[in-house]
User: Which sequence fits this backbone?
């Protein structure tokens, strides 16, 4: 665009940005990339259930803690986690706010994400089943989130005309700057809206990931794999992918303590998935790149278990206004992805994906460290 | 298109047809419609397993039958069924040919469908897992099928740029000519390619219906519902749908003889579905219009059972070169859809969907007659 009779480049850019807001908004955001140390760390925060802050009481803490316990304990835990782990990305996997107890959903969202915003660390969020229980619809919540500082969240992929839900998008994590993987995404992150509740009268219970979303995921995975296996530095397999969404898949029901690390102590059926299977596990296994899935929703489950080559992981409940278990600490999951050290020096593709959890106790105790995936064991799930 | 300096309309049409072949090909085909009697009958033929005709022996018949039994018995059964039932549509649900025993797949296809072709009754086919086991690929088989006379089969929907498989399409059945439903599709038929075998190393067994196909189905169902509920004669609910594909869904495993009509006697696991759930049952329940699903694949299962408002039906094995059970007659399924008689006279929307099977015995004995769906009981699955 040329402003006739002038050469005000800044004005041109501003005008262009007003027209092409989404593109400029994206362009402003610094892309994710592995650091010089060859690792990328993600902090997962599940189920903050934030409401009004100081006036919102805690749930399921010991009676003597009640008087001084509120949403601010959730904030403090998040601040401590960020300080302790210094992640490269913070991912919020839904039920970020408990909107039915919130006086003003927008303010609750602002407060819930405040520690992430002020940390200047990029962050991403998806929706749970409680985020929209106020004046803000699911679309409204997601539209509010994407305007907050430092977030990489998107309402939906710009290229999609029809997709179910709000908060389906992907993020690419580039190789180390100056390395031969500089211009490749070596780690792919998928974020999906697993819905809230069934809208189908004959299907009770929670929502699920729909065909439109799975088709988008499938095409995105294919596109990324195609780029990864193209020259230069053409790779043989796909770059590892991690998927983040709120409601666990029904396939988690087939895991038990003989094949998972962590705790499964949710009341009743154990896994609060949708009551039907919408096939997303099959779609991910078929795509071939996703190595681990990270859910929230079941605050009292915090395990990771391998099924058909994909690690299915919970983070465990984080928020103090969320149901929990007095004496069983609120917790968060950390994932660190390490690159391969090349013979000639420098960093290559992803070598391993590790995880642990931290408890909200005096020392932020680390528990359940485990390797989720490694290049050397790939193909032997 | 205007031919300059001439007025040869025929030439124009021919030229246009050469350019727009698929459209002209469609236009040639007479659309399906309920007859003056207010009913529409579909004959389902599952698993003909046709090969070379007279020289291809039968399987699993009594020893004394072997000498005179061949693919021609399959042909004779099909001819008798067509003559006895006079269906409005014949649907072949895959494993139409047993291509690995076929000398020439194209000839086998021609011979297998010959009774349908010569009956002048419209027919439609989908692929099974055995149709492509020769020089003709799945695409090749489907491309051969769509060129045969009287078929309404399509390789894939013309509007889809990316869809998995070959033989995904839908057919609309219009209301009675001259009635107020003349210009509405009152019955919708969906045909899908359920694949052959898994292409995913970590998933063993049979194929499944992919997200791209489900997304197409979902959008097609939505479009049809939108037309059905639009003026004139705006309807409240969707027009009933019937889905035809080869490999049964894993959900059939949850049915047992307390809630189905027919026989479940397939060896081993009972239901030879894919080893994973790809979500198509959930997608159909969500769409809300499909009242019954018709599969083949398991020759020794022939039951129908209701799950969450959808009847899941087998046809039972039809072909003599297919495995079966000596003494357990080859069989076919008939579905008849009846319209509602209007108070003012004439025909309205669909009132009931009934089914029965016919055995290949002396009298083509009818068994297991049942109502699959009726307007009066809708909403009470």
Assistant:
């Amino acid at each position: 665009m040329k402003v006739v009779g002038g050469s005000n480049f800044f004005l041109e850019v501003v005008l262009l940005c007003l027209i092409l807001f989404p593109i400029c908004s994206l362009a402003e955001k610094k892309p994710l990339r592995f650091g010089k140390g060859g690792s990328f760390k993600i902090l997962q925060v599940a189920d903050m259930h934030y409401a009004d802050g100081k006036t919102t009481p805690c749930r399921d803490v010991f009676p003597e803690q009640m008087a001084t316990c509120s949403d601010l304990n959730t904030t403090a835990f998040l601040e401590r986690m960020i300080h302790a782990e210094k992640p490269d990305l913070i991912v919020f996997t839904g039920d970020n706010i408990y909107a039915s107890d919130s006086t003003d959903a927008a303010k609750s969202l602002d407060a819930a994400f405040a520690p992430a915003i002020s940390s200047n660390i990029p962050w991403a969020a998806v929706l749970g089943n409680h985020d929209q229980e106020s004046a803000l619809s699911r679309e409204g919540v997601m539209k509010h989130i994407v305007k907050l500082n430092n977030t990489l969240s998107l309402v939906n992929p710009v290229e999609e005309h029809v997709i179910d839900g709000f908060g389906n998008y992907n993020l690419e994590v580039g190789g180390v700057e100056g390395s031969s993987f500089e211009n490749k995404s070596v780690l792919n992150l998928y974020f999906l809206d697993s819905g809230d509740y069934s809208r189908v009268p004959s299907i009770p219970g929670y929502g699920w990931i729909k065909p439109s979303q799975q088709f988008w995921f499938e095409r995105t995975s294919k596109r990324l794999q195609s780029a990864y296996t193209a020259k230069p530095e053409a790779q043989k397999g796909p770059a590892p992918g991690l998927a983040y969404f709120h409601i666990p898949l029904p396939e988690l029901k087939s895991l038990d303590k003989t094949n998972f690390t962590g705790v499964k102590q949710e009341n009743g059926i154990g896994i609060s998935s949708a009551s039907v299977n919408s096939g997303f596990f099959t779609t991910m296994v078929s795509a071939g790149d996703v190595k681990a899935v990270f859910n929230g929703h079941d605050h009292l489950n915090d395990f990771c278990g391998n099924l058909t080559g994909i690690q299915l992981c919970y983070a465990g409940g984080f928020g103090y206004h969320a149901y929990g278990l007095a004496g069983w600490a609120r917790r968060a999951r950390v994932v660190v992805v390490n690159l391969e050290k090349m013979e000639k020096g420098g960093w290559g593709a992803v070598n391993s994906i590790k995880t642990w959890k931290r408890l909200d106790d005096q020392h932020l105790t680390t528990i359940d460290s485990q390797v989720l995936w490694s290049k050397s064991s790939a193909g032997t799930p």
About this structure: Chain B is about 25% helix and 20% strand.
